[in-house]
Structure to design on (817 residues):
């Protein structure tokens, strides 16, 4: 019974995120009359949108379901895949139900896509959300706050509810709850990866960028309880790996399944980081806008998109490997992804220094052939199981 | 180097050569003389501030392109890729990493000093941040970062300006003081900025001379070869003021005499096509690339790449009365820090004001800051102005991505397209 229900939840999640017509978003808009705003990876403060009655909708590319026709006329062959599938979705009308798009500052490609959106969809809100790379409250904090205030004003102009502190506190509470459940699921996967297959967790997290937060909380909590109680899920002799580099353009689900079938337990990953970007619950007692700012400055995940300052690149990855009890790292980055690929040699230097095995490959969101990757990951897993500790 | 011997040069170009050679000699001698160096980037460079502390700027992008022009970049890039740097990423970075491995030898054949400070001016290019993270692992020296927000909404807001000024005051100046052992001198900075503004007036006059027919300059190849480079490392110095005065005098004389631009192969006689060019040039085959234009009588009358180190032709000048604010506005206003609508407006303006026959995009494989969105920009400028738009692809410093015959074919077709369009108009 529980196995069926788990399957039902995961299938519903997969159906939601694969539905490029965004039917669930349209239904929400019809029901509430609210605005829906798309956002691209990695992180936007969804609490702020929610507090103004806006549905934040994660747009993470077209994946392997979308045929690219017009998108290729917008991008040279040496640019990653996610912007071309996103513009394809926009031009194809699939994103018409969105009242705007947010483009967080993560790389030059997403940055420039924000300008393209202004050209192609002038009637919609198109906002580049800059984030500070200085993490002091008096400089980076003040700048980030001004960016958030500008976003608030933009949303109000589009008909969103006026900013209200109490509403933001309530929204923060909800997203704290969602973040807590996701972190719990990650902790459970670290402890018992056979309980939480990554392909399932991925589908649920991805759909949770589209579902209203209240619904996401209910579904993810139910999933958590069900997998905890499910005694039919038993361990196998698989290599425990951390998967790094897939924080923007997402791999096809088939690739994630392939990695798991090749003998890897993915015990930590970079997928859909919006739920985990802020690594702890935000403060709900003081000024809620300050809470968002401070969360970004002091409690955000390390990321190739975030300046590392005086820290040594890759130390955070070593810590993640240790915390997860992982035996190796799979660098799994999209082709032509500047942040991931420029970061990788530095991360490799750190994990090699720590004696952690690794392997690397690249993908595009629309890859359909996984045999080579399966062999590479399988060999890597075998080498860990056979030779680690020897 | 054999190419170098045959190059035709004006007086200004000869002076430039001496200035740059002297600069590199000072850098090479720095370990002995005790002079200290700061590595930084061209866009958003704080040259006046660096020189306020008597520090010497080193620009890794310039080193990379010089390596390419000397035929060294192929081996440097290969060395970096052997270390695990991806073939997908910026070749300036890989060239720089490889150059370090080969002993950090600069364009004059002398070793460049290790940096006393890495000043990361993070303006208009995401890769800059990663580049200096990589360099930080290479050098045992402090690093300071100036984060310059992007003009996503096409304007500089008060909060953006304040953020940059605050960083200059609270982080950059203290880091420069520490690296140099000298105190910041605001009066000296005002004087430097006054000189910058003087040179900027002459620079703009030179760039705008291309509105004449024939254009006395090539604002793309010549722009990056002898018009622009001095500006970055020498801005705020008396030498830069003198250089741009001399250059402007030379150029105005060319206008008076009705002369075309000077190319490495001599003076261009007939101006057949006037082009606006978007995107950086290729450096590995720079002269060959330039020749494909000059042989056809194609002159680049305006270009966007010459604005990555600063946009002055819209009226911006460094302002001695608002020293830090104007430094901030300079950083915020660099071309690659402009959003796409602003970039399209700029190109459209160039096509109209310089009476160009077309817009040509040189799309660079490893520069997403420029390249992502260029196809749309090309269509947009074409729609607005009605001029034919062309598109070629190459790379900054990776010779594997320069296909001479392919580019030449495309250019020839493009020039034919312009001629046909002219014919159509005349009919």
């Amino acid at each position: 019974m529980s196995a069926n229900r788990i399957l039902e939840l995961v299938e519903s999640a997969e159906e939601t995120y694969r539905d490029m017509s965004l039917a669930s978003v349209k239904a929400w808009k019809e029901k509430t009359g609210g605005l829906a705003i798309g956002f691209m990876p990695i992180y936007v403060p969804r609490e702020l949108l929610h507090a103004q009655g806006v549905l934040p909708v994660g747009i993470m590319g077209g994946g392997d379901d979308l045929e690219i026709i017009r998108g290729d006329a917008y991008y040279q062959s040496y640019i990653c895949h996610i912007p071309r599938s996103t513009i394809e979705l926009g031009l194809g009308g699939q994103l018409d139900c969105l009242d705007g798009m947010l483009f967080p500052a993560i790389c030059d490609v997403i940055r420039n896509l924000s300008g393209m959106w202004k050209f192609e969809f002038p009637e919609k809100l198109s906002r580049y959300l800059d984030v500070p790379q200085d993490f002091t409250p008096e400089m980076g904090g003040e700048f980030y706050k001004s960016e958030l205030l500008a976003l608030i004003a933009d949303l109000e102009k589009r008909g969103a509810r006026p900013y209200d502190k109490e509403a933001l506190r309530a929204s923060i509470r909800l997203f704290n709850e969602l973040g807590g459940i996701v972190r719990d699921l990650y902790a459970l996967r670290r402890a018992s990866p056979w309980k939480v297959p990554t392909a399932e967790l991925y589908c649920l997290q991805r759909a949770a960028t589209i579902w209203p937060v209240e619904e996401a909380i209910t579904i993810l909590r139910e999933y958590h309880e069900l997998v905890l109680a499910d005694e039919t899920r038993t361990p196998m002799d698989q290599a425990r790996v951390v998967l790094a580099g897939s924080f923007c353009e997402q791999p096809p689900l088939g690739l994630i399944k392939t990695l798991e079938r090749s003998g890897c337990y993915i015990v930590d990953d970079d997928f859909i980081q919006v739920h985990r970007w802020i690594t702890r619950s935000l403060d709900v007692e003081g000024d809620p806008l300050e809470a968002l700012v401070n969360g970004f400055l002091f409690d955000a995940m390390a990321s190739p998109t975030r300046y590392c300052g005086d820290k040594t690149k890759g130390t955070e990855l070593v810590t993640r490997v240790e915390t997860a009890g992982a035996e190796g790292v799979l660098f799994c980055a999209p082709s032509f992804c500047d942040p991931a690929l420029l970061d990788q040699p530095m991360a490799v230097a750190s994990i090699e220094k720590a004696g952690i095995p690794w392997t690397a490959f690249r993908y595009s969101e629309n890859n359909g052939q996984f045999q080579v990757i399966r062999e590479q990951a399988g060999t890597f897993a075998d080498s860990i199981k056979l030779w680690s500790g020897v | 180097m054999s190419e170098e011997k045959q190059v035709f040069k004006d007086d200004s170009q000869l002076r430039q050569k001496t200035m740059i050679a002297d600069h590199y000699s000072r850098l090479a001698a720095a370990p002995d003389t005790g002079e200290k160096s700061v590595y930084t980037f061209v866009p958003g460079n704080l040259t006046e501030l660096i020189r306020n502390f008597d520090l010497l700027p080193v620009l890794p992008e310039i080193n990379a392109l010089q390596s390419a022009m000397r035929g060294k970049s192929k081996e440097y890039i290969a060395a970096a890729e052997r270390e695990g740097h991806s073939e997908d990423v910026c070749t300036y970075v890989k060239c720089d990493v490889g150059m370090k491995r080969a002993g950090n030898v600069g364009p004059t054949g002398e070793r460049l000093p290790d940096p006393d400070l890495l000043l990361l001016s993070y303006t208009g290019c995401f890769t800059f941040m990663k580049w200096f993270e990589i360099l930080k692992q290479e050098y045992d020296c402090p690093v300071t970062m100036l984060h310059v927000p992007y003009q996503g909404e096409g304007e500089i807001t008060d909060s953006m300006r304040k953020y940059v000024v605050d960083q200059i005051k609270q982080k950059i100046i203290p880091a420069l003081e520490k690296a140099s052992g000298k105190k910041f001198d605001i009066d000296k900075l005002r004087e430097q900025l006054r000189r910058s503004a003087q040179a900027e007036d002459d620079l703009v006059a030179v760039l705008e001379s291309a509105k004449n027919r024939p254009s006395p300059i090539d604002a793309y190849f010549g722009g990056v070869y002898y018009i622009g480079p001095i500006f970055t490392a020498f801005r705020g110095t008396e030498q830069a003021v003198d250089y741009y005065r001399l250059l402007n005098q030379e150029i105005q004389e060319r206008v008076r005499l009705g002369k075309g631009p000077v190319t490495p192969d001599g003076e261009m006689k007939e101006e057949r096509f006037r082009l606006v060019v978007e995107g950086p040039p290729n450096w590995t085959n720079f002269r060959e690339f330039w020749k494909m234009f000059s042989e056809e009588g194609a002159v680049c009358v305006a270009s966007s790449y010459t604005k990555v180190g600063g946009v002055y032709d819209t009226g911006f000048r460094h302002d001695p009365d608002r020293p830090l604010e104007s430094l901030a506005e300079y950083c915020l206003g660099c071309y690659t820090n402009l959003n796409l609508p602003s970039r399209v407006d700029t190109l459209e303006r160039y096509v109209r004001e310089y009476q160009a026959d077309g817009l040509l995009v040189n799309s660079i494989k490893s520069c997403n800051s420029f390249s992502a969105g260029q196809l749309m920009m090309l269509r947009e400028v074409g729609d607005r102005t009605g001029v034919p738009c062309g598109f070629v692809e190459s790379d900054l410093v990776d010779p594997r991505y320069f296909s001479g015959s392919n580019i030449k074919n495309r250019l020839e077709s493009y020039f034919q397209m312009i001629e046909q369009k002219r014919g159509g108009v005349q009919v």
